[in-house]
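If I may wish for something, please walk me through the protein I am sending here so I can picture the backbone:
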Amino acid sequence: MADSHLLQRVDILCGDFEETKKYAAADTFFYLDPPYKPLNDTSSFNSYVKEAFDDREQIRLRDFCNGIASKGCSFLLSNSDVKGKNPADDFFDDLYKDYNIKRVFATRMVNANAEKRGKLTELMITNMEGNMYL
């Protein structure tokens, strides 16, 4: 009931993130959960639509975050931690170097290979200060 009460003042939008920009005001909070960047060649579950959510889309999402942050909006973005699989892969660390990046553990219960189920790190990226969000 408490969640229902809180959500009475919330608009949840689903679609291309660019379409939400018109709702951006200084007190707007964006939670962004895009298709995750694959951790390897066989983990490419990012085809929610016919157009792939590839590195260009990830960069477009970062540009969107820059735009809403400049309007005074807060955002929290989740994504895969490619550096957790390949320590030399700085894709997200470089892409979001101007923001707060935290690695958090997530448990995977679904995988065709049972030995690959378990904990791995994911990224939480935000323009908010402090640890109140993680």
